[in-house]
Request: fold
Amino acid sequence: MDWGTYKTLRVEQDGAVLLVTVDRPAALNALAGQVVEDLWELTGVLAGLDEGWPVRGVVLTGAGEKSFVAGADIVEMSAMDPDTAEVYGRRMQQVTLRLEALPVPVIAAVNGFALGGGCELAMACDFIYASANASFGQPEVALGLVPGFGGSVRLQRRVGIGMARELIYTGRRITAAEAHRIGLVNAVFADVPSLLEGARATVAEIAGKAPTAVANAKRALNAIADLGVEDGLDEEVRSFREAFGTEDSVVGRKAFVEKRAPVFPGR
Ligand code: HXC
Reply:
């Protein structure tokens, strides 16, 4: 599969896993305009993953062992006027929406600083794993700015409104352990190699399940996040019914009854 070539991203397939590394270590992998454009292009390619399921999960990380992504590129931003900044913010927001719409799960493997736009990028992934040295924060107020890549929306959904307010108003940086305690991070690993190994293992676990069902569950969970109970239940039954119509579900149910492992066709 041709994943494309990118100036600021490394894209490597290893079996069912696509490892995507933001690769600007000299600037702690900050989201320069070029990174945003590369992410835009790559997420466009990945939108078609449900055709043949060449990989079953994406692991997103940063180059090196110091930083995941240290936010928007402050050097570039210092030359922007509000109109240009709006275009930049909007573009990166669109990248986050594309990540959420991918038919496979995306795991953020946070290997160091996840600050500002870096924390926002991680929160656009399905869930977050971290190495013990990782730290998280929305430090925009220290620059006279506010979150602009979805943090105002997604942080409160992940950790609740009170904690989101405190983190955004103070700009405070929190450790991986604290991020785990408040539910921002699912699991903390001792170091970066074990973090990547943990993320790979979870994708391998997902790869044993029905691809259409995982994609369906992701779509439904995202849609339901915006709904009340009744509309959420309607959405759930719609997605449940859709799952019943897939060959994967016929194969899965039959294999259970016949006491053997299913081989999912991915349709
Ligand atoms: C551009 C950055 C950068 C960034 C680090 N660098 N963060 N360049 N944009 N966000 C560069 C530094 O300038 C430096 O380059 C090199 O990376 C190493 O960084 P140091 O500061 O020397 O490292 P250290 O002392 O370890 O401090 C690490 C750090 C600090 C705590 C992460 O770099 C920092 O506070 N960075 C900014 C974090 C931040 O405020 N992010 C939020 C941005 S606002 P040189 O060339 O000197 O070696 C945002 C808004 C999103 O994300 C919404 C916009 C619409």
Observations:
- Residues 27-28, 30, 70-75, 85, 88-89, 113, 115-117, 139-140, 143, 145, 147-149 surround hexanoyl-coenzyme A (CB under 6 Å).
